[in-house]
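Forwarding the complex inputs:
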Amino acid sequence: MTRRRTSAGTVTAQFGAVVWSLLAAVPFALIVLLAFKSNSDIFTNPLGVIGAHWRPENFAEAWSGPPGGQGFAIYLLNSAIVTTIAIVGCLLFGAFIAYFATLASRRLRTFVIRAFLAGTTLPLIMLLIPYYTALNSLNLLSQPWAMGSIYVAICLPTSVLILHSFYLGFPGELREAASLDGLGIIRTFTTIVLPLSKGPLVAVGMVNGFFVWGETQLAIVLLQTPESRTIPVGLLDFKGQFSANTGAIFAGLTMATVPLIIVYLIFNRSIAKGVALGGVFR
Amino acid sequence: MSNHRSVIRRRAAAIAAAASIAALLLAGCTSTSPAKDLSLTVQVQAEQLTAFKYTAGLLEKKHPGLKVHLQTITGEQKNTTNAQVLASSNAPDVGIVPTNAQTYFDLMKAKKLIPLDDVWKSADLAARYGDTVAKSLKWNGTPYLALFDTVYYNVVFYNKDAFTKAGVKAPADRQIASNADLYALVGKLKAAGYDGLAVGGASGYQLGWLVDAQLQANASPAALHDFLTSWQSGNKQSVKYTSPKFTGSLAQLSEWGKHGVFQSGYVAASGDQAQAAFTSGTAAMMIGGTWIPSVLKKQSFDYDWLLLPGAGDTPTVPSIYAGDTLAIPTASKHKDLAKEYLEIYSSDKVQKYAAAKVGSLPAVNTVKASEVPDLGPLVQQVVKFTATKVGIGWTSTLPGGLGQTLIDSEAQKMLSGQSTPEEVGKSQQKEFETYKSDNG
Amino acid sequence: MVIHAPVRKRTKNSREARLIAVILGGGLLILVVFFGLPMVDLVFTSLSRWSGVGDRVFVGGENYLALLSDTSVHDSLARSVTLGLGTAVGISIIATVLAALVSGGIKGSNLYRVVWFLPAIAPPSAVAVFWALSVQPKSGVVNVVLGALGLGNDHAWLADPATALWVVIAVAIWQGAGFAFLVILGAMEEVPVSIYEAAAIDGTGPIRQFFSLTLPLIRPVLSMVLLLESIWAFNGFTLVWGMTEGGPGEATTILPVQVYQEAFHLGHFGAAGAISVVGGILLLIVGVVGNWLGSRRAVDE
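Prediction (whole assembly, three chains):
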């Protein structure tokens, strides 16, 4: 889809695009730069390159973990467990609910979708104490798989809403052909619809994954023992009584973000396609 | 023949595989609490880790098979969610429960900590803490806490090289005599390109420190005593927080803000930011305490210490914080071992070790700071000074929701222009009255 | 949700209907267990006085009554609205412009598609720490750059109550624009080329085309983005807390921050619960109304 633009318009447009690209990408480079600096330099000489106080030990410290905590490897493992459970659970439940809502009667569908819409408006802070009391009485605190299950529920509303919009545009002919072949609605879903929903599923999975990977508010209260902590919570241990090892925190954040960027670069086409909403299914 | 053998070999391999999988599964299921090993969980703050580890080692030597797990908590956590953590059935065996944190009061009211009379008796803590401190650690006459270090704060460290360059002379007796002197001093520093006093306005406690120092210097002894004790159960308030005896100290800080005493952007600066401003030479002074030399260690410049002025003729003095305390939750599964841990940490041996390695001053009077040369000359000087001139911090005494957390955020509001000293006094009084009606 | 496609043929098969009901019922059950029950628990807490440990003491509507007269709650509500709307509007405008650039075939579109989503990947805590550091006076990256451009390097935006909230909004826009960009771009790319070709034949310039063709056609998606982003910003605790902890003073204390402070700093879980319930109800109304408005617009077309 091309439109002819005036050359002045193109120059302004390119300028704007480049500026925004720099704004979007440079902070990541800066975080990596700061991760190599000493605590003092981070606050007082963040951009300095010549004559700066370098401290590559930040990475060694971040890897071996905060004092009294566990190593970064353990935090990485916990983050991986929690995120995988959250993504798999929420995609599985989300796809089922979103698709079958399109098959339901109008009243049921509207009710279900409105309920999930209400779910998106809930602030996490309200859920913090009830979840804590519940997990405590079930003796499930500091269990990464319990944390993952909670994230499944939290990510479900937005996932259902996005997937539902996608399934509304799903061509009915494919489904009718399947039912003519004698496939029940569930088989139709698993053998025909699901494989064709790869794009949105990857997109929703990624978006939820990024959220769960960095979530701190709930994790900090529900994952108490150092062995159970995820990366963002574990990194907080670098904050002491009066001062923090900021260099190590940045190094840890760098190590935490790099896998995300790699995953994103691999899957980015699917994310872009899948996040697109509405209209005709392509 | 070979066929038969390979079948047997395959069967053996299959059985071995099945057995090892079963063993792994069993190990996985039971690895969380192996019956043989005993374990103790102790909370710790990053700064004191070395000393806590040392104590753990001593305890493990006495009890072979024991493993002590250390769990770090942050400053934010110990004032907030730690109450829920220590009240839960999964609580650690030894928890950090500062005397001035809201968590201490909530836990005591819900009766979630065990009394430590026996620990105090066997370690002779009542005598070794001294009367004032011992009293402050008891709840209705019974001790539930064990102190692990003491700290003096409201000590200002200054950059000697910066002072020389700016042509400023530090006060001979270490106390800046008056506000006029302070403004003149800061003026000269600014002319030489330095910021004045680096303070972490967003740290959550440093503004509260300044209030403590001012109250000690400005309020009359009777008023100060009232501020320090009226919140306790059964006591009546005779000096309201709306009185100038309280708001005057706040106004003092406001004046300093207006005269540019602090570094630029101080209201939004974290403690680390302020410290970095000092160590990088941007600000010539920073507010701190006796732990600072062990954190700063050697800098590219020489530094020394001084004290800020009060509103009138009385200068400020260092404030004592005897609130770094440990407690044992009722949910602990190894109360005897936990008590032993506390006793060992309170021993002279560990207290001396902690002072030397971590820079914390001893909690007990049987170990003198002068016996620990590793503390360094600056700390020794402060300790000597406080032998005769020391203040009790108001924020170090009151429960967090009524004291430190409240006044720090109110002071931040005031210093950023959203409130006045009188309004802060009103908020403080209102919160006090709510507290009294809830707690008596 | 906006419904574009025609209504599905209702399946008459009762066995299928039961299957659908079971699956959807399961979904609703998840909502009830993970959202409904905690909400009930929260309402109970809001009707009590509780320090977070020990027993709750029932006090009836005392917390709600106190709310009505507490100006700090009204203020934090107003700030939340400002944050929510400011972020949503900012994100929508920037994302729409960015999407227009890429769908218009600007050179480098393939690269831009990848780069512009990057900010959404970073964990909010990392974003907060980084930007809070970068806007510090004199030494923060932003001030260093401004100083190099001759615009002065001593701006302490986070220390000034008048500007602190806008800095937070700017950072929230930075992080959220990427996701909205992809959504809006997707909607723009659904618009058939033929519509633009017809307009070009009629002599309509590209700018007119954008305002009178593209925008109205993507309005349902735009309004959904606006709604979701404002809800997310309204509820955004991590970014604000990480950058300013609600400060300076109360300049950036939005509702979730106030709830956290009331509950965990001051030990007033009952009051905090009441504030969250009120905020939640308001947001629910906004969500329902917004959704209804959005879908009505689509029907009108």
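The mean pLDDT of chain C is 85.
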